[in-house]
Amino acid sequence: MKVSDILRLKGGTLFTARPDEPLAEAAALMAERDMGSLVVMSHGDLVGMLTFREVIQAIVKNGGNLGSTLVRSAMDDAPLTCTLETEMDEVRRMMLERHARYMPVMDHGMLMGVISFYDVAKAVVDSQNFENKMLKAYIRDWPEADKNAQG
């Protein structure tokens, strides 16, 4: 299974932030839309990733408020990325290694979407459920001659 398979099922609505945007505005959008991350874009280029982890760290650093903090000062400016062709096993490995919960998907410099650790876990569970269903159907439809030969 590839990243493109997850994005096809997930849909393509993307929300982004700008590095010069107030962090409070970005956090408000994340809360309003119930999103755990925003891709930070500048002039069409990916320049960072903002997750609730970075927002919380900024709040703690600023004594409990965001004040005039900009997205630029809180974002991860070197986020992990993958492509549409990246295999799920590789995405899982990368996310676990870096403790990343969100990963932008890029295609020739263009943002295609964001996958979350939840998306990856759901894809794995769905795949296992499908495989179990197919195996049970195969066993249930086992030819009679083979059943008698083994019994």
List the helices and strands and how they pair.
Layout: H1 3-10, E1 16-17, H2 23-32, E2 37-42, E3 45-51, H3 52-61, H4 71-74, E4 82-83, H5 88-98, E5 102-107, E6 110-116, H6 117-140, H7 144-150
Parallel strand pairs: 1-2, 4-5
Antiparallel strand pairs: 2-3, 5-6
What does this protein structure show overall?
It is a single chain. With 151 residues, this protein is of the alpha/beta class. It has one domain (3-118): CBS-domain (Roll), CATH 3.10.580.10. Helix content is 49%, strand content 20%. The chain is built from 7 helices and 6 strands, in the order αβαββααβαββαα. It has helices spanning 3-10, 23-32, 52-61, 71-74, 88-98, 117-140, 144-150, and strands at residues 16-17, 37-42, 45-51, 82-83, 102-107, 110-116.
List its traits:
single chain, 151 residues, alpha/beta, CBS-domain, three-stranded mixed sheet, 7 helices, 6 strands, 20% strand, elongated
**Could you state the CATH homologous superfamily?**
CBS-domain
| Helical percentage | 40-55%
The end-to-end distance, rounded to whole angstroms, is 37 Å
Structural class: alpha/beta
Number of helices: 7
CATH class: Alpha Beta
Identify the overall geometry. elongated
Unreliable stretches (pLDDT < 50, length at least 5) are none
Short description:
Helices cover 49% and strands 20% of the residues.
